[in-house]
Each structure stands twice: as structure tokens, then as C-alpha cells.
Amino acid sequence: xxxxxxYKYFILLETVHGENVMHLETQADEAVKAxxxxxQCWHANEEIYINKGCLHCGSAATYLLYFTNRSIxxxxxxxxxRYNCNANRHLDLMDLNHFEHDYEAFLSELEKCVIHYSFSxxxxxxxxxxxxxxxxxxxxxxxxx
Length: 145
Description:
Layout: E1 3-6, E2 11-16, E3 19-22, H1 27-45, H2 55-67, H3 70-88, H4 99-120
Antiparallel strand pairs: 1-2, 2-3
Helix pairs in contact: 1-2, 1-4, 2-3, 3-4
């Protein structure tokens, strides 16, 4: 079995008895795409989606919060809670000791959770693309710090 993953369109092709078969995208596929997007945002721009940022990456984080499972949600909410009040004080998170290491560790753990989630899901046809989700990180809200 050969799998080709094309990030932008997330097309999966399998060679089955010599024939290529195109699979319908699933909710699990979309979670993996959202995770890849978060990872790329971090590597390309050191973008962090605790506060306002790129809409595309904010949508990816929002998708993972709303459309996956409890373990992914808990992991994300715990990380956000840990650093959220620093953003309220207008501190650059990159200036905090060990933030870069903590965020990298968070992304690695999130990747493991998303991969586990994607393999444990029944193939459910994708209902919505993560890019269609409004980022909750762009909204104004009062922080409880």
C-alpha cells in the first residue's frame, strides 16, 4: 500500500491491487491538516495562537478545540491557561524563560494526540474544513487572571 499526502489538499491515494483509489476526506484528516498548519505557523513565523494572530492558524487551533476529542481539548486549554495572562500584560511570550521549549513540547504532545485521534476515529465524511471555522482567538474577551 502506497500513501501520498499532499498537504494543501490532503489527497490520499492508495494503490489497491494496482489501481489508484481516491478516498473521501474525513474529520480525522481535517484534524491532521489543522495540526500540520499549527506546526507550519510555528516554524515559519513563530506564530502562537493564544492571542490574536493569523486567521488561518487561529482557525486550525479553533477546529482542534471544537471538533476533536476531550484529550486534545484539555491539552490545548491547559496550555492556553498557563500562558494566557502574560498576553494580557502585553508581554512577548518569546521573552519568557523556557516558553519556546514549552511550546515545542506542547506541539509535539498535540501531534501525538491528533494522530491517535485520527487513527481511532471511524471514517466520518468531513462536514467542514478548518479554514471555514471562525477563529475564537480573534475575538475580544475579558481575561480572568
